[in-house]
Amino acid sequence: MLRIAIFVTLLLVALVYALRKGGGPEKAVAAILLFMLISDQALHLIFAVNFLSVDAGHLLIDLIAAAATMTVALTAYRFWPMLAAVLQFLPLLAHTTRAIDMDLHPIAYLTMQVAASWLLPPLLVAATWQHQKRLAQAGSDRSWYISLRPSSRNAAKH
User: Which parts pass through the membrane (predicted)?
Assistant: First the structure.
């Protein structure tokens, strides 16, 4: 239980920092992690999780989080969201491994599901700190890629 309390504390500190001081990508990933935290807590209140078979509830949470993080990674004007997306896809490998090998020990399945999540709070803190550093140096920090193609209306004018 102490391990969970430490992780949740680190995560909450990272979330508050990112939501208060981060740019668009930092806030978006913080929102994704907050969704995961709340969904996970709700899941554990409603269902007992035993890790003896594919954990459908966590699989759904992980699928949503991976898709959302990949969307941020593909649209953010930052490199770090790609790292976050990879870390969000690793639990999907755990679910796939469990589906393929039902003899996988439950502790191994649990560890594969949660181990990568320990890297997300420090990554989010570092990304937010870098955003603040760029703001201090340049006065602005571009958050998102903007399409360079003119819209069809503007193209007709040119």
Answer: 28-52, 59-80, 107-127
HSE (side-chain half, CA atoms, 13 Å) at 1: 0
**Which segments of 35-77 are extended strands (E)?**
none
114-149 pLDDT, tens digit per residue, is 899 999 999 999 999 999 999 999 998 899 987 555
- Name the token pair of 136: 């201090």
pLDDT tens digits along 101-122: 878 888 888 888 889 999 999 9
pTM: 0.86
Query: 10 Å Cβ neighbour count for 58?
Result: 24
Helix (H) or strand (E) holding 48: none
Burial class (CB in 10 A: 0-12, 13-18, 19+), 61: buried
Q: In sequence order, what are the residues at sequence separation of 6 or more whose Cβ sits closer than 8 angstroms to the Cβ of residue 70? A: 85, 88, 89
DSSP per-residue letters across 83-142:
HHHHHHHHHHHHHHHHHH-TTS-HHHHHHHHHGGGGGHHHHHHHHHHHHHHHHHHHS---
**Contact between 9 and 114 (Cβ < 8 Å):** no
> Which tokens sit at 149?
């193609």
